[in-house]
Amino acid sequence: MAGHGTQATQLLSRLGIAYSVHPYETDSQQGGYGLAASEALGVAPDRLFKTLVAEVDDKLTVAVVPVAGSLDLKALAEAVGGKKARMADPAAAERATGYVTGGISPLGQRKRLPVVVDASAGNFDTVFCSAGRRGLQIELAPADLVRAAGATVAPIARP
Q1: Percent helix, strand and coil across the chain, each rounded to 5?
Q2: CB 151 within 8 A of CB 122
Q3: Which long-range contacts (CB under 8 A, 24 or more apart) does 95-103 make?
Q4: Which helix (H) or strand (E) holds 112?
């Protein structure tokens, strides 16, 4: 495991949660990080989750949705008891999480933000999410992802 230590993997190790790390080649020039990871790893895009940072009533909130779909902002706001959601400014997201865009992990973030994981994660034995670095994914059981992130589970993705 040496050399792959990120805040996310360190958190999982501290919690004693089983996970595996999957490095892949990434071309940082392209925008769709999630789909690129899905292709590179040969993982179905509904099983690989992207981490998005939104603002719900001006409070940063993390959404974890399949790369195959998109975030339903209204559903996210409802999931955390808010009224209005919009995507957060990428710079604000990077500052709050301590990760760079395209490598934001729902785990081990600098600030403790509310996290909502899309309910579809429960359809799989294991799911993939960013390990906190572009080109690095963590595979773990959805229940462990929810527990480690202190997340709420709700249907927040649109196909």
Answers
A1: 30, 30, 40
A2: no
A3: 96/53, 96/60, 97/53, 97/62, 98/7, 99/7, 99/130, 99/132, 99/133, 100/134, 102/28, 102/33, 102/134, 103/33, 103/130, 103/132, 103/133, 103/134, 103/135, 103/136
A4: none
Task: Give the integer Cα–Cα distance in Å for 107 and 130.
Answer: 9
Max CA pair span of the chain? 44
* Pair of tokens at residue 77: 């706001």
Instruction: Determine the residue type at 48.
Output: L
> For residue range 139-158, what is the model confidence (pLDDT) as tens digits?
999 999 999 999 999 999 99
Summarised one tens digit per residue, pLDDT across range 2-40 is: 456 899 999 999 999 999 999 998 775 555 788 889 999
Residues 97 and 63: their CA atoms lie apart, in Å, by 13
Q: Which helix (H) or strand (E) holds 102?
A: none
Give the single-character DSSP code of 55.
Answer: E
